[in-house]
Amino acid sequence: MNLLTEPHAIKMPYARYSEASRQIAGIEAIDYFFARQFSQLLFSERQESGVNSQVNNIFHCFLALHMSLRAGHSCLPLKEIAGQLLGFASDENGVVSHQGYALPDIKSLTALFNELAIAPDAQQAIIFDGQRLYLRRYYLFEQTLLSYLSAQQNSADHIVIQDEKALAQCINRLFPANNQINDEIDWQKVAVANALNKTFSVIAGGPGTGKTYTVTKLLAALVSLSQAKALKMALVAPTGKAAQRLSESIVQAVAGFSDLLPADILQAIPTNSQTIHRLLGVIPHSPNFIFNQDNKLDLDVLLVDEVSMVDLPLMARLLSALPSRCRVILLGDAQQLPSVAAGSVLADLTPIKQTQYSAENQGYLSRVTQIQHIGRASKNSVDYLTYLTKSRRFDGQGGIGLLANAVINGESEQSWQLLQQAKAHQVPQLAWYDNSRLWLTQLVKQYYLPLQQASSIEQAFDWLSQFRILAATRSGETGVENLNAQVETILQQLSPALQTNTHAAQTGLYHAKPIMILENDYALGLYNGDIGLIWRNNAGHLMAMFEQSADNIQAVLPSRLPQFETVYAMTIHKTQGSEFGHVAIVLPKDPDNQLLSRELLYTGITRAKQQLTIDSHKAVWYQGVERQVIRYSGFQE
Ligand SMILES: Nc1ncnc2c1ncn2[C@@H]1O[C@H](COP(=O)(O)OP(=O)(O)OP(=O)(O)O)[C@@H](O)[C@H]1O
């Protein structure tokens, strides 16, 4: 069937894209062609149907569905669009620029889609299920996740370790009683105990709450309890950088446990992490992987870190590739930005905002941890989920933790007051500027100029990790591209060597320039988001250097590099999974910028370990803190 041939009986609401874009604000060509193609497909199969008079409504719903997918939702709940005027826009004087389109109420829309018979089993490309419209692909990914979860929750025989006495001994050895502070519940201990009797668990918490520390104890417990059976364990994260950090944190945690555990147990704790893509085995130019539902991984334990960054398709593919015996432990901060691509897996898996277990689970936990009051039983319990709440990094009166909390709780006034106090130097760790850029020259001098004088590449990487400028957008005055150009101009003013460097002027490359890779190159082993430094080697040639692990630096000829860009400044989205000593966040000037959200600000703020500089107007800050990222999915009510 030729999809582009319109069945003659059906008249589409817009003859071409230009007409639709004049009428509907915010659409892109791809939304229009998606709606047109799938409406035509539907009607070509239903020429005699009574729904023909509804072509406009169907077209508009499909248009809204595609706009939703583009915004990262995995579906479109009809209740979000029913009875509304969508795509309408007018200027500040009330002059209408786009008329938009109106949709019928929920009852009529539901009746229409029921009549179309596009239920999940109808083998259609667009599916209507549970009052939501889906593209079939995303529906199937979501089903994979949902059925994985229900299989874990319903099957007690998946639980590997059932000897509670042995469990209790092991847990109490890992968490000696003197770890208990002022009768506070040690949630790290609870999290380990909780994960030990489940094949699936989620340990969630903000930065520095000890997720990696806790999970290292969990791995130690699994090794101790496996009774000489060598477990096949894998540690993964969504990006190379996050995988590297996970390895480093586990090595650091293991080093601190020498008083708690014998050397043979410590040695058996895995420390090598890899990306999820690497574990699954990338097939070049294909979205599929070597390991999948028909060719499963041989694993007993899988730990996934930074789950907020994992999108729905990747999580579904990962879970499909696991054998049923595999224990899965997910770690992440559910309050961070969701994945760039579709879905909000971690947010969906953490539907309640504090730990709440069933009475049965509480009974088990009390028995093995000897902690008596783990909480009241609740109907809303989610037994696989434990929150760690005590930040080991941002305690006391440090401004970063206070600001992060106020932002994620939507407290615009309180967070703004913190910034004002910071201006008066009353809050440690914070500095605030009103879109002035006064800080830029000083921080470039402090952090970026010294890179040129670093005595070794290792030292340069170390210094580079101390500071980063973060922006919400790529383009525009406050975007990454412009900020990078400004830093380079300042560096040229400060460094006479750079001013006279004709090679730099011709190629844009110079010694100690930080770069970020923008596309995967499997042959070179370089991936989107990898950060490197242009560096003059001993032979006097400029090479691109990448820190593959703490003691392995890879040198690549600049001419062989995949697409890359300068990275004195980067987007907040791209910094997920990384941290820096000092972070400077530059926000857009327009409060209506659609990228602004409290999750974006929170993610940016929590990238800073010691010092944070914020550059924002008041109206922009308020908008950012008040707006929340919402992602629709079939996990929600
Ligand atoms: N119970 C504890 N006792 C002592 N030190 C701890 C404890 N829990 C965590 N820490 C220390 O606190 C720091 C942060 O812990 P960790 O790296 O595990 O946190 P995280 O939640 O994984 O943080 P992020 O993912 O943001 O890096 C580490 O230096 C760790 O050794």
TrEMBL record:
Pfam families: AAA_19, RecD_N, UvrD_C_2
Residues reported to bind ATP: G205, G206, P207, G208, T209, G210, K211, T212
Keywords: ATP-binding, DNA damage, DNA repair, DNA-binding, Exonuclease, Helicase, Hydrolase, Isomerase, Nuclease, Nucleotide-binding
EC number, as in UniProt: 5.6.2.3
Catalytic activity annotation: ATP + H2O = ADP + phosphate + H(+)
Ranges where the UvrD-like helicase C-terminal domain occurs: 567-613
Domain RecBCD enzyme subunit RecD N-terminal: 27-134
Domain of life where this protein originates: Bacteria
Quaternary structure note: Heterotrimer of RecB, RecC and RecD. All subunits contribute to DNA-binding.
Record-stated family: Belongs to the RecD family.
Purpose: A helicase/nuclease that prepares dsDNA breaks (DSB) for recombinational DNA repair. Binds to DSBs and unwinds DNA via a highly rapid and processive ATP-dependent bidirectional helicase activity. Unwinds dsDNA until it encounters a Chi (crossover hotspot instigator) sequence from the 3' direction. Cuts ssDNA a few nucleotides 3' to the Chi site. The properties and activities of the enzyme are changed at Chi. The Chi-altered holoenzyme produces a long 3'-ssDNA overhang and facilitates RecA-binding to the ssDNA for homologous DNA recombination and repair.
UniProt cross-references to PANTHER family, sorted A to Z: DNA HELICASE B, DNA2/NAM7 HELICASE FAMILY MEMBER
Remarks, miscellaneous: In the RecBCD complex, RecB has a slow 3'-5' helicase, an exonuclease activity and loads RecA onto ssDNA, RecD has a fast 5'-3' helicase activity, while RecC stimulates the ATPase and processivity of the RecB helicase and contributes to recognition of the Chi site.
Identification of the protein by name: RecBCD enzyme subunit RecD
Classification lineage: Bacteria, Pseudomonadati, Pseudomonadota, Gammaproteobacteria, Alteromonadales
